[in-house]
Write a structure and sequence with these properties.
There is one protein chain. The relative contact order is 0.12. The chain is 73% helix and 0% strand. The protein has 98 residues and is mainly α. The chain has six helices and no strands.
Length: 98
């Protein structure tokens, strides 16, 4: 901070600043994940695609697919058969593509 902005920070202040930066990054990432979850849900509802197909069409990176699978299963989608059936996809639907 001192080199870039001419502000001297104590060690405690530096730690607190790092915490604040990490917190804001976490809030931002949560927003990204929430938006993608909503997009997946809407795509499944409007097209009838499987979760695997919806993730493919949204270009969800392979390393993030398991995260979305778990998050979507946490939701209460049993009232919508299209969402429920899309969540019980065959993992091979998308793993063979990568």
């Amino acid at each position: 901070m001192e080199e870039e902005y001419g502000i001297r920070l104590t060690e405690d202040e530096t730690k607190e600043l790092k915490k604040m930066c990490n917190l804001s990054e976490g809030v931002y990432n949560d927003g990204i994940y929430d938006r993608a979850k909503e997009d997946l849900k809407n795509l499944i509802q409007s097209t009838g695609w499987s979760l695997a197909k919806a993730m493919e069409m949204l270009h969800i990176p392979p390393k993030e697919k398991e995260h979305y699978e778990q998050e979507m299963k946490k939701g209460n989608f049993n009232h919508d058969r299209r969402i429920y059936s899309a969540l019980s996809y065959d993992r091979r639907d998308y793993e063979s593509d990568y």
